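User: For a benchmark we're assembling, each entry needs the component sequences followed by a predicted structure for the full assembly. Here are entry 17's components. Please fill in the structure.
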Amino acid sequence: MSGIRNGPRYRTQARPREAGITIGELGEFGLIDAIAARMPAAPDAVVGIGDDAAVLRVADPRIVATTDLLVQDRHFRTDWSGPDDVGCKAAAQNLADVAAMGAVPNALLVGLAAPPDLPVTWATGFASGLAEEAGRAGAHVIGGDVSEASLIMISVTALGTMAGADPVTRGGAQPGDVVAVAGRLGCSAAGLALLQAGLDEPAEPVAAHRRPRPPYPAGPEAAALGATSMIDVSDGLLADLGHVAAASGVLIDVQASLLRPDGPLLAAAEVLGASPLDWMLSGGEDHALAATFPPGAPLPAHWLVIGRVYSGRGVRVDGTNYPGQLGWQHFS
Amino acid sequence: MSGIRNGPRYRTQARPREAGITIGELGEFGLIDAIAARMPAAPDAVVGIGDDAAVLRVADPRIVATTDLLVQDRHFRTDWSGPDDVGCKAAAQNLADVAAMGAVPNALLVGLAAPPDLPVTWATGFASGLAEEAGRAGAHVIGGDVSEASLIMISVTALGTMAGADPVTRGGAQPGDVVAVAGRLGCSAAGLALLQAGLDEPAEPVAAHRRPRPPYPAGPEAAALGATSMIDVSDGLLADLGHVAAASGVLIDVQASLLRPDGPLLAAAEVLGASPLDWMLSGGEDHALAATFPPGAPLPAHWLVIGRVYSGRGVRVDGTNYPGQLGWQHFS
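Assistant: Structure for entry 17:
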């Protein structure tokens, strides 16, 4: 069932007194009400939060869907990120996957499993972060589920629709194409490195780690510009371009001199004595979009050309294999 | 990202040698390949498993979406249910929610978080159960995610489409309507009670607990028959009719004499000295569909009339409040 069950009429209720209360004390249905109270109604929902399932009217019959799990102490730490940050990030990473198909995000479904002693304020903060990031992408939370577990586990499914153009997969890159990136690279990794070192400054990389800012509109824009392939940079630029190279059967070469670290990244690198280039090549979680375009495609300035596609296999940096770690893999 | 990343070409690969291997040894991408190898391609997927997101072409622009979390030792026990049973049940409970809107299920997205020492055969068995139950409902697994966690946690999102008729919500029951049920009641609860007593016979209730058999086609059928409200019986008949009564602003009266326990239920009740009626009224997880219809609606025999809708509030059995537990609630 879709556990978030309150209909529109619940939204006019006063919010429960939440300070100091745990979700176990509030109970399932009270928790659902408290979460749903943070969620603006979706204008394109024929049936919204509160029934067995939501019903959404879409303009293009090609619907886009992706799902992710986030596990406490693996994907987030409650001492490093506030509940609103966790909500924001959980939403962002899925909404970015929708954008990476060249699609427009329109809805989220969210599952939250948590221990009964979790403060209600954590759950509502999480809900607010979700709603905020969904709003930034033009999407709405349309359903969900709550459950008990020994640690916090979150599932997010993002739905979107194509907007006229065809989906942009990982498999269409052609030799001769240019490789370009929209959004930041390495900033989230720098923020994570700072937090791991017990630091919370420079503030901007730490903020970027807590709340990635994927460039959602760049996804459909790339599709309209004729992108031949696209991917959300979540595992790390080289690792994700590796997925594109494998799916397309091509070689991708990244030109390191085109990756210009910005001020906050340089500041973090100086503090930690680290390599900003390493973060840009191997750090994921900024959820930039990487795409390939036919040579001569008229790219706006926020699509930064960083390399080129060749015949061959794999990913290289300046023509050679990169010696660092390529990116993140589970169970490794 | 959508972690299940293999494209169609992976499907022709030999399956990895899985006996005795753990998912930690196999690694993320090997695990994804092993899971995806169990999944038949979705004919209506423009982009299937293996990209940032799946893209599905739907015939009716009103898409139906619902999500659930299942947590080990809370929603399932690995000693009571095989991995294929868990996959089947995880799929069924979400597909039934789609059917309960009067919709036709067409896709699942599935997240699996698990400890690295989980045998690969558990994960592939789980995948086979998912695929089998999806197939029973006419749906396909189109995407997913895998992650590491200290216990098994599963998320399932089901997508469907309306098939011409309007969505049937919980909120449309009218005084004078009849209440009818398609599918089994109480059988899963009886099976759970047997397992809790250390028994695995009579076999049929135990099988019903492990693998519910929701009557998926009855959902769109009810919509076409003019159902005024519908719900998936997951928490228990009275609890779920309570949601319908609350959403519709009506009183629902169930006539106990119309709930005729079948042979397996009577056999389980005899073994345990329990009340079959209690299981039928309060047991969830068979995922029967309960709906209200205008008086005189021409109901097929598999829609069993069990009560009637009146002006008022709440749910009664034979005109009085039922003394037993109404159903399941989390955090209680």
